[in-house]
Amino acid sequence: MNATATNSADNYSISELAQEFGITTRTIRFYEDKGLISPERRGQTRVYSPEDRVRLKLILRGKRLGFSLDESREIIDMYDPAHGNVEQLNRLLERIESKREQLRQQQRDIEKMLAQLDDATARTQAALKEHRN
Amino acid sequence: MNATATNSADNYSISELAQEFGITTRTIRFYEDKGLISPERRGQTRVYSPEDRVRLKLILRGKRLGFSLDESREIIDMYDPAHGNVEQLNRLLERIESKREQLRQQQRDIEKMLAQLDDATARTQAALKEHRN
DNA sequence: GTTGACGTTTACGTTAACGTAAACTTCAAT
DNA sequence: ATTGAAGTTTACGTTAACGTAAACGTCAAC
Prior knowledge:
Two copies of one chain form a homodimer.
Chain A: H1 14-21, H2 25-33, E1 40-42, E2 45-47, H3 50-64, H4 69-78, H5 86-131
Helix pairs in contact in A: 3-4
Chain A binds a DNA duplex through residues 13-15, 24-27, 29-30, 34, 43-46, 68-70.
């Protein structure tokens, strides 16, 4: 046990992340292949930083919302406006607003679907009461 | 022009629905193939009722939320508790509640992502102000 | 009577997002 | 020295959700 350990403390192995998020290592490597994560390497081995972990979290959040990996990448990249020139920044603002609109549409869709499920519950319970005869 | 027209008034052709919802006829036929819609036939030709149209609407709503066609079919079928026996009805109630939970998770995901987009907007606008020097 | 516009079936092609398997390395432990 | 757990690359396989194209029927319009 050295004072300056080889692992910089708050790093993760690929299997640690896989287990934490309930996915396979294959999936994580696939995301790297698609350019969504870029972990460091200790020799051959991948070493994931807390930032990498956050990116993974964002990808999975996107997945739960039905986003493609390309869409998730886009959204993640929006958080970093290092993309210099003014025109690009303005287009970025538009794309952000567009995504916001899409999310608001999803909110409306969820509301309607939840109402539909309330209906379904009521109908099913009614059918159950029917059965008590 | 006969008084009792061949088309029962409020029915739709496949291309009408396709245009209304911005999808292709191929897509609609595909949904039928997967058992999501079952339009009537006037000879060979498909004739869609208002109920068919509603089902289509629900499918597309599911799509916007990232649901697979199988999931959408499940949700749609939840609305009709014709599935007799008590045990099945109880399992149905569980599946409904499960879906509700999933939708609530999506709501949380959307909230976080919207907050993230607010951040992104602020950062981008800051980057733009930087550019005015 | 042929030309469109619209419909049909059948079938092969395509893309995304991984799964699965093979073949290999590294390293700590027995 | 070998085993076992975890890592790696390479590559072929799979499923969902359509796209695309071919080949054909139908019917009102010119």
